[in-house]
Amino acid sequence: MKKILTFITLSLFIPFSGISQSLQINSDQAIVDFNFVEEDAIGTVKGIKATINFDPTNLSIASIKGTADVTTLSTNNKMRDSHLQQADMFNAEKFPTMDFTSTSISKTDKGFKMIGKMTIKGTEKEVVVNFTYSKKTFVGRTIIFSNDFDVFSRKKREDSKVLVKITIPVL
Known about the structure:
Layout: H1 2-13, E1 22-23, E2 31-36, E3 41-45, E4 49-53, E5 63-69, H2 78-84, E6 97-108, E7 111-120, E8 123-134, E9 137-145, E10 161-169
Antiparallel strand pairs: 1-4, 2-3, 2-10, 4-5, 5-6, 6-7, 7-8, 8-9, 9-10
């Protein structure tokens, strides 16, 4: 009888224990697209690794933490790509990854809003990523400024605007 009562008790409480769904990303298909607006330079970053705990019905326990490999940065211009790896730009030898850790995720009319800390070249800044989750794929968009991370700094911050699109398929 004790075993039956224990089983029933556990069966009732485990579904409500606040465990979010842990998702495994498809690293081969995950990509960050960017557009450095002032220079009209577009490119990609790959080598994405992430830990995603996501349950759209319980966002209070959702979290996303990820990295992108700076050495995979590509603008389809080998000379520029090589320069971007150097110490005066991303300094890939000292800072081989760009990192992001969410601090909150909330529902919006068009999807979700994620606030988190982005670290590029050792500098951490808060960013807002608006994203959708559909057909087992997260698609997020944000705007960052390269001046904020001491990468390709410009006289005016607005001239360092970078449009970012993050696509993370899950298995």
